[in-house]
Amino acid sequence: MTQTTLLQYEAPWPVHALDWCKSTAPGHQSRPRSAFRLGIASFSEDYRNRIAIVGLQDERVLVEDDYTDYPDFVTLVEANHGYPATNLQWQPASASGFSWTGKAPAAELLATTGDALRVWEYFGDAPPASSAYVGRQPTGGGHRLTLKTALSGQSKVQSQSTGPPLTSFSWNEKAPSLVVTSSIDTTCTVWNIDTSTAITQLIAHDREVYDVAWLPGSTDIFVSVGADGSLRAFDLRSLEHSTILYETPAPKSGPPASSASSRLPTSPLLRIAFNPADSNYMSTFHMDGQDVQILDMRSPGQPVIELRGHRAQVNAMGWSTTDRPTLATAGDDCQVLLWDLAAYTQTATSPRTANSRLNSPRPDVKKRVVSDPIMAYSASSEVTNLAWSPQIPGMTMNTGHSTAPGEWLAIASGKSIKALKV
Questions:
Q1: By CB distance 3.0 to 4.6 Å, which of 20, 73, 275, 310 could disulfide with 54?
Q2: Helix, strand, coil shares of the chain as percentages rounded to 5?
């Protein structure tokens, strides 16, 4: 009996934001199905966007390649979102043990950014006993997705908000009530989503901020990237200054800065992501760039590794959650590349603890160029986003079949989502 290595889903709309659930559903720890849930969001340039949760139609799709009576994934529930969601994330795994104010124990939280930071409550009821339905779940399936709160500017908003668009956010793993958002208005805002209050708002960059990420294990330090081409670190304990970890080199050729603006042309940085296995390392890439830069916090200023494998602009990247430093990248060349960086990353002899300040420099390290990914997957069109699953344990079905443990990688390409067993 072969195990499935590819699961597929066709959405009714182009998919932009995408995330794999971080933990099984409350009370469903023994059901393999609930580890395979994705949150997805549409992208259309109007006010009719949607977010949806999709899940496995039947566990047998994991082991039976010929089990094609039904689609692999079905829509469990969906909701209106208005403007497109720029980012969507499930609650961190640590959130299930957190004592939230006024949240039902059976509910799971998701968050999205767009014209506001929205926190959603999802109730995934027990699946219907029979799977005789085809396509979408019947609406009586018990799945509910409701808006819990919307936050914009520095306050809670009741109606449709009119704040400057938020580009992204990061959910704190250690303190799941903390979320930091980034905005095109040059600011980052740290929210307590449990009390719906802004803890602090700061001007982070000279221009739009495109992405933000908490330092793993820390509730004080986060980093951001933006249109000014810089990667900066902030410490909530000393906000009077930030640390510039990297600035993109000015383009060699390009229009001279006009007299109306003294800004030099820079290459914006679009995304930032920490390696969860060793938070000294983080990855970023440039707008329209084909390469991915890996930076080491201990030797800021220049990348220590550059990944060169894509033949068109990179759109997305994500680190695996295992102890081995593995990065997935995806781009307009329809390629998803997997990079094993264990041979190139050195773990410090005395790892910098998350509470130390940003100050453990290393001697200058020469940049390594890596151009040989360990895996390449070709999609049928440009790949716009990706998301890793957590490590999913092996499981035995009631049919007697069993699956091996491992990780999956979900990729979005147009209206298609494919989940690849890594």
A1: 73
A2: 5, 45, 55
